[in-house]
Amino acid sequence: MTITAPERSRRSLARGALLFRWIALGWMAILAASHAEPMRNSPLAWASIGAAGAWTAWLTIAGKSWSWRVLFFDLALCCWLVVCSGFVVPEHTIATRAFFATAYPASAALLWGVAHGAFAGLFAGLALSAALLGSRLANGVHLQDLSRTAWQSLGGSIVLYLVSGGATGIVSALLVRTSEEAQKATDALIVEREQAARLRERESLARQIHDSVLQALALVHKRGTELATQTPPPAAEVAKLAELAGEQEAALRSLILREPERAPAGQRSLREALEAISRSVDGVPVTVSAVGPIWLPRGKADELAAAVRESLANVAEHARASRAAVFAEEEGGDVMVSVRDDGVGFSYDEHALREQGKAGVLKSMKGRIEEMGGSMQIRPAPGGGTEVTFHLPSA
User: Fold this and answer.
1) CATH number of the domain that 352 lies in?
2) Which residues, in sequence order, are CB contacts of 198 under 8 Å at separation 6+?
3) Tens digits of per-residue pLDDT, 90-106?
């Protein structure tokens, strides 16, 4: 399934929230195991920790999307951990000792904010705040008996939950909006490049029509106007014009309906080679645009196509892109092929790649092109993602 840029942003935030959840879970277990004073209800405490651990593991394995059922269950579990704190610590001590649930419940507010924005995050924070009040009652503490310090501690926890959900929701909304705008910009650039390629093909066809059919039609128009002034018009001249018009009709029909150009001996169409490798890429849709067939010696066309295939394989495997586009053009005998995606981007560091033993970019792409006297350039693509450009000079 193709993942959109906004969805990638949400998942990145969710991975950070999940890491926070695991750290808080570990700290909750450490506090329960190491506290000097015995807990009032150890079985309940460890059962609650076990439930939180199982739920966190399930979210890690399967939590790629969050239905309302998942979100409400997560919020209910975190609210229970807050209330449970009042049942497991000695009575009347909840405000004076390390809080049993620690920061783990805040992860529910984080998840609601990531999934549905600031208002959803604030809703989760309010629910957790209500659970905080319930934890005091469960611990035998009457709210009217709370001291100023206890109220400040309680207020600080409430603010933590509200800010966790609200701020995360705001950040999530900003990232999603930015990703959507970047996606639109990338799509517009790809469409513009495709339109430019089609325009150049149309201009090439227009030149061929102008050089043959249009000039002949202009001659027919001029000579026909001259013959119209003669009474009667010479039959032989009219016949010549009719024959010329028929020849140009056939030429125009042939131009429109002609079969694809035959490959010159020992050469291959680069456009066909690129279209073939684009169909073999799994995981990301690929569009190919080229100005004409671009004939190259078969060996060069195959090597260049292999470098492009390696680039597209990297996009499908690492970039988390929703689409990729390949553009090929020839100017002055030089051939330029660019591979652009809208993924997470790639910082090209040749020295680091050599140290890590990653030969795909250096050998399968850069090495292939340089052996043919060309060059490769990797840079951030406008609007997000990466653009890889292969250049083969004419000489």
Assistant:
1) 3.30.565.10
2) 289
3) 787 776 655 667 788 98
